[in-house]
Design goal:
This protein is an alpha/beta fold. It is built from ten helices and twelve strands. The chain has two domains: about 160 residues, Aspartate Aminotransferase, domain 1 (Alpha-Beta Complex), CATH 3.90.1150; about 220 residues, Aspartate Aminotransferase, domain 2. It has a seven-stranded mixed β-sheet with strand order 1-7-6-5-4-2-3, with helices on both faces. A five-stranded antiparallel β-sheet has the order 8-9-12-11-10, covered by helices on one side. The longest helix has about 40 residues. The chain is globular. The structure holds pyridoxal-5'-phosphate. Pyridoxal-5'-phosphate binds next to helix 3.
Length: about 425
């Protein structure tokens, strides 16, 4: 069958050897998947999910039992006091924006301790001028860079002692940078350190791409609030859109009053019939995240053996589902991404080209042959067109489809 996809014999042989070597890693991924599946099932049972929760509301969405119970399930799974899980969030960026505008006030200071946040937050924060940015409302932004992929403990402590910081943002996934993603161990350590110096600062985690990669989530190691997208890990490839904010009850409440209106908060917001899909997505998510991880591990080993610089290495401890490959060559990056598209179920015969995406500074090429527009829990690959010409690949609803996508991309690149 692989030959029908234009994959040559030598590449198939090579992939067989790779699969033998990565077997022990797959076993570990399966164990995490098993644990997280039980965690999800328990939350469904504890909250007595039944057919009636698949109800839908329209209009204001008052008294939406399904929506409210679904949020309780998410809260339990994430170790949160409360959660806001809504289709009214357009994306992860929107949820992060709502959270930041909900928690910060004029004169407040936001401090990122993982360097510059994700590209789409540039205009939200005001790093790039925008009349609706946090900066335009008088919110200050500061950042501390990671040093050799570690938190700069000294600089963080010094800054916290110097003057009031209201919110610390920690972005776990690397975004479009070449740094490593933040593992839960590192997160736990830095949170303890912050708490020793400052008991009050809000610790907010951009948790995009990290859910269910480990058996614990950031709230369980001391974070106050986490934010993520439902067209990434927790949506399990089934949620049609949406995002979540989970954590301390008071913070979730503040966020809800910013998403809807002060005084209305969580009480409104019609589910419009998507609660069943959100719950079903959460139910599938541990297994889908496991498939994405296996696809990433397979790609990592394949491309490392072909001489490319990959991060993480196949046997590294992972914090997220993202695999980066440095091609150091613009054309190879483009060919690889185009190959991912060719291996997709949807739009396999359209060829992606680099373009000026809203919210991003460099041109970006994006391969996404997904059922849900922009969904990156489905196999997808993108790269900003700038040295070292790095592909950021993630997703894979099943390992089999993920593997085919990677093989097709490699074949297309090597010609
Ligand atoms: C995907 C992502 C976001 C949000 O992106 P959307 O495309 O708006 O959902 C934010 N931060 C990180 C680290 C991400 O990976």
């Amino acid at each position: 069958m692989y030959k029908k996809f234009g994959i040559e014999d030598n590449l198939i042989e090579h992939s067989k050897n790779v699969e033998k070597e990565i077997e022990p890693i797959f076993k570990e991924i399966d164990q995490v998947c098993e644990y997280n599946s039980l965690k999800v099932l328990q939350a469904f049972q504890n909250n007595k999910i039944s057919d009636m929760h698949f109800n839908q509301t329209t209009g204001y969405g008052y008294g939406d039992v399904g929506r409210d119970t679904c949020e309780k399930v998410f809260a339990e799974v994430l170790g949160a006091e409360d959660a806001l899980v809504r289709g009214q969030f357009i994306s992860g960026t929107h949820a992060l924006t709502v959270a930041l505008f909900a928690f910060l006030r004029p004169g407040d200071t936001m401090l990122s301790i993982t360097g510059k946040p994700y590209d789409t937050l540039d205009e939200v924060i005001g790093i790039v001028e925008n009349p609706s940015s946090l900066k335009s409302f008088g919110v200050n932004f500061e950042k501390i860079e990671l040093v050799n992929n570690e938190f700069d403990y000294e600089a963080i402590e010094k800054r916290l002692k110097e003057g009031k910081v209201n919110l610390i943002e920690i972005q776990r996934s690397k975004g479009y940078s070449t740094r490593k993603s933040i593992t839960l161990d590192k997160l736990e350590k830095v949170i303890k350190h912050i708490r020793n110096v400052d008991k009050d600062v809000i610790i907010m985690i951009d948790n995009c791409y990290c859910e269910f990669v480990n058996t614990e989530e950031p709230l369980e190691v001391g974070a106050d609030v986490i934010v993520g997208s439902l067209i990434k890990n927790l949506g399990g490839g089934i949620a049609p859109n949406g995002a979540y904010i989970a954590g301390r009850r008071d913070l979730v409440n503040l966020a809800s009053e910013r998403l809807t209106a002060p005084g209305e908060g969580k009480e409104v917001g019609p589910s419009l019939g998507i609660t069943k899909l959100i719950l079903q997505g959460l139910f599938m998510a541990p297994s889908v995240v496991a498939s994405s991880l296996k696809t990433a591990v397979f790609a990592s080993k394949m491309l490392e053996e072909l001489g490319f610089d990959v991060e993480p290495k196949f046997d590294d401890k992972r914090a997220d589902i993202v695999q980066t490959i440095n091609f150091n060559d613009k054309n190879k990056l483009i060919k690889y991404c185009q190959g991912i598209q060719m291996g997709s179920p949807i739009d396999s015969n359209s060829i992606p080209e680099p373009w000026d995406m809203p919210g991003y500074t460099d041109q970006v090429i994006m391969a996404a042959g997904a059922f849900t527009q922009g969904s990156s829990i489905e196999l997808s690959c993108d790269g900003p067109i700038r040295p070292p010409y790095t592909a950021f690949m993630q997703g894979g609803l099943t390992y089999e489809y993920g593997k085919l996508g990677v093989l097709k991309a490699v074949q297309n690149m090597i010609g």
